[in-house]
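We were asked to recover a plausible sequence for a given structure. The inputs and outputs are reproduced exactly as logged, with field labels preserved.

PROBLEM: sequence recovery
POSITIONS: 129
GIVEN STRUCTURE:
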């Protein structure tokens, strides 16, 4: 293999470690309205367009990333963004389902209107239009 990495391909999968897999799975089916694409005793996979989001029980995480430790030293290290047509309407929809917003809706200085919330695994999601 020569040359540089070609970053034009899509991200195939993202794995999120979940302390409470059943609660996080329910959140994805109820809040995002997604069917489970695949599941077993330690994971539940959902399809967001062409990207798979794998919710993995934190107890199974070491097998995936060993020898790296599970968990970040402090604070959050990522935000996943979903594009929606109307951030304000989607925020009302989320609030009606008991989802607590971390921030927003707010129009960012760089243009998009956004809002953020956290899933039961602690992953921060942002909606943007």
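RECOVERED SEQUENCE:
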């Amino acid at each position: 293999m020569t040359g540089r990495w070609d970053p034009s391909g899509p991200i195939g999968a993202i794995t999120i470690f979940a302390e409470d897999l059943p609660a996080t799975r329910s959140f994805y089916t109820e809040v995002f309205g997604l069917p489970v694409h695949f599941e077993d005793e330690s994971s539940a996979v959902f399809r967001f367009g062409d990207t798979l989001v794998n919710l993995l029980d934190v107890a199974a995480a070491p097998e995936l990333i060993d020898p790296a430790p599970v968990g970040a030293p402090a604070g959050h290290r990522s935000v996943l963004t979903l594009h929606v047509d109307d951030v304000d309407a989607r925020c009302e929809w989320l609030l009606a389902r008991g989802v607590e917003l971390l921030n927003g809706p707010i129009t960012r200085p760089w243009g998009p209107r956004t809002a953020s919330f956290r899933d039961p695994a602690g992953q921060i999601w942002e909606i943007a239009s």
